[in-house]
Design brief:
Blueprint (H helix, E strand, L loop, with lengths): L1 E5 L4 H12 L3 E6 L14 E4 L6 H9 L3 E4 L6 H6 L1 H21 L4 E7 L1 H4 L18 H20 L3 E6 L1 E3 L11 H10 L6 E2 L5 E2 L1 E3 H10 L7 E5 L5 E2 H11 L8 E2 L24 H15 L1
Parallel strand pairs: 1-2, 1-4, 2-3, 4-5, 5-6, 6-11, 7-10, 8-13
Antiparallel strand pairs: 9-12
The structure holds nicotinamide-adenine-dinucleotide.
């Protein structure tokens, strides 16, 4: 299958592109390298250094005519979306629509979209949340992700193009950017390995569902299958609080640093955990095993 992956120079989608290549698919990547790295892109993909917001996307889609578009490119910083909702919507809503218009005109047969569980469900009524949980996004980032899910519904109703939305929990693993706001595992690991001191905001009892990136890539493979369509969680069903996570990382990095606490970030979600979706065929990798692989990768680069 010919697959165009947006954001394929980034953390998650570079693993997705690798998984597709391994299965023998023809992979094209579109990425503007705003946070992604060219080093993450395999030599076996055709790479376009371009933005999903640009008119150039129409030419790329018309030339390549992929069977499927896997859409991961995004502005991923929730705090930035709060500070500048127009910018967030420009990339995450209008950019997505630019891509979808180009794709439908080029005859694409299916969309796969990287959505979010944590930011779409908001403070949960049930733990873990399944896909039928009420959606109540609290940030422009979450609102944009939910909007794009709705637009994909529109493309299905209007043009008959099926879609898969993957609502990710907190994804972690090799290649995650340690300098953004998103990845606590990456930020803590890099700091601890460099002998620097990370900070826990609040009392550290806030929980998240940490899912390993290779489990996420496996769901993106399942999403290609004939007849697979709709909205699916990608998580572990296990809540881990930040104090516990920090404890694992201190042990794995052999660090004896005392991690200080700073005032909680206003509006930070208290708990988040997703019921694994049916596209998760294997049990999720344990946190201990995933963190071990992640720390090894960061250590090899320090
Ligand atoms: N990391 C998580 O825990 C998580 C959780 C839920 C959803 N997601 C979603 O998964 C996707 C990938 O996230 P990630 O963590 O790998 O982040 P990332 O920043 O590593 O990847 C995003 C990629 O998109 C590219 N990009 C950004 N704006 C672009 C544009 N306008 N045109 C083309 N390329 C552009 C960046 O250069 C980068 O390579 C995003 O859509 C994100 O919202 C991530």
């Amino acid at each position: 299958m010919k697959i165009l992956v947006t954001g394929g120079a980034g953390f998650i989608a570079s693993h997705v592109a690798d998984a597709y290549l391994k299965e023998g698919h023809d992979v094209i990547v579109v990425d503007n390298l705003s946070t992604g790295k060219k080093d993450h892109v395999s030599h076996n993909v055709r790479f376009y250094h371009s933005s999903i917001e640009s008119p150039e996307v129409f030419q790329i889609l018309e030339k390549e005519k992929p069977d499927l578009v896997n859409h991961h490119a995004a502005q991923i910083d929730v705090r930035k979306s709060v500070e500048n909702p127009c910018y967030d919507a420009g990339v995450n809503i209008v950019g997505s629509l630019n891509l979808f218009e180009a794709a439908r005109k080029s005859g694409v047969k299916k969309f796969v979209f990287a959505s979010t569980g944590g930011a779409i469900y908001g403070e949960q009524d049930a733990y873990p949340a399944d896909e039928s949980h009420r959606t109540d996004p609290q940030s422009p980032y979450g609102i944009a992700k939910l909007s794009v899910e709705k637009y994909l519904q529109f493309y299905f109703w209007t043009y008959g193009i099926p879609f898969v939305c993957l609502r990710y929990a907190n994804v972690y693993g090799p290649r995650q950017n340690a300098h953004g706001e998103a990845g606590v595992v990456a930020i803590f690991t890099e700091k601890l390995l460099k002998g620097e001191t990370p900070v826990i905001y609040g009392d550290g009892t806030q929980t998240r569902d940490y899912v390993f990136v290779e489990d996420v890539a496996a769901c993106n493979l399942e999403a290609l299958k004939e007849g697979v369509k709709g909205i699916f969680n990608v998580g572990t069903g296990i809540e881990t609080d930040v104090n516990t996570l920090a404890g694992h990382l201190l042990q794995l990095t052999s660090s004896d640093i005392k991690i200080p606490h700073a005032p909680a970030k206003p509006g930070e979600q208290k708990r988040s955990v997703l019921k694994p979706g049916v596209l998760q065929k294997d049990s999720p990798l344990s946190l201990q095993a995933g963190l071990t692989k992640t720390v090894e990768w960061f250590r090899s680069r320090c």
